[in-house]
Amino acid sequence: MSTVSPEAAAASPERLRLTEIFLSLQGESRSIGWPTVFVRLTGCPLRCQYCDTAYAFHGGQWWDFDAILDEVARYGARHVCVTGGEPLAQKRCVELLRRLCDEGYEVSLETSGAIDIGAVDLRVSRVLDIKTPGSGEVERNLWSNLPLLTAHDQVKFVICSREDYEWAKGVVASQRLAETCDVLFSPSFSQVDPSALADWIVADRVPVRFQLQLHKILWNDEPGR
Ligand code: SF4
């Protein structure tokens, strides 16, 4: 962790503000179940009504890249997930992602879908949220991100209601998302009955992967507990 002044730290090109680094099981996405080091960056410009990481909106500590890489290495896991908050809100995040890829990790990035992903290293699996109307942040979707997606990436919808489901189904069809990458439908915790969402997907033959957040099932909590 940095001991320099906040002004000097903010000016350095190789530092990021982090809320936490920890080892847990990946709770969602294609890498679900793998031991994963989570690097949680501080700050997010969105305010989704279901957000479970509001503690990452403020605070945190400045870390330089070498300290982050040393801490990640200490856990000895192959998978690293850079998350937030909204990690891309700190522009130097793309450099950290590149450094993690260079070290040989399987790197994923969880991003809100509200910030341009074009500068992110293509070795990173970008897990891009598309915010539904029920999130309260639908107007923040940056639709120009969608043509940048590859088969290595994933798109995630957090479904808050039947109306959200219908909206998301329409986006998947109109944007032909399932032809590009994995599309994940996840019920908003305590807002949609998971079995109801599963039934809707099966009944409509929607080409998406249903998923529950493993860490909520195991620990009823965040991945890091
Ligand atoms: S984008 Fe993510 S971190 Fe930001 S408010 Fe929404 S759920 Fe929370």
Number of helices, counting only DSSP H or I runs of 4 residues or more: 6
State the separation between the terminal residues, measured CA to CA: 22 Å
Give the CATH architecture.
Alpha-Beta Barrel
Q: What profile does the largest beta sheet have?
A: 9 strands, mixed
SSE order:
HEEEHEHEEEHEHEH
> What's the β-strand tally?
9
- Could you say which structural class the secondary elements and strand pairing correspond to? alpha/beta
CATH top-level class: Alpha Beta
Assembly context of the chains? single chain
What number of domains?
Answer: 1
Bound chemical compounds: iron/sulfur cluster
**CATH topology name:** TIM Barrel
Q: Percent range for helical residues? A: 25-40%
Share in β-strands: 15-25%
Any idea what the shape is?
Answer: globular
Strand order of the largest sheet: 3-1-2-4-5-6-7-8-9
Molecular structure report:
The protein has six helices and nine strands, in the order H-E-E-E-H-E-H-E-E-E-H-E-H-E-H. The protein is of the alpha/beta class and 225 residues long. It has one domain (6-219): Aldolase class I (TIM Barrel), CATH 3.20.20. Helix 3 links the parallel strand 4 (79-83) and strand 5. The structure holds iron/sulfur cluster. The site of iron/sulfur cluster has 10 residues, from loops.
Brief summary:
Pathway: Purine metabolism; 7-cyano-7-deazaguanine biosynthesis. This protein has 225 residues and is α/β, with parallel strands linked by helices.
Looking at this protein, list some descriptive labels.
225 residues; alpha/beta; TIM Barrel; 9-stranded mixed sheet; 6 helices; binds iron/sulfur cluster; magnesium ion binding; magnesium; 7-CO-7-deazaguanine_synth-like; 4 iron, 4 sulfur cluster binding
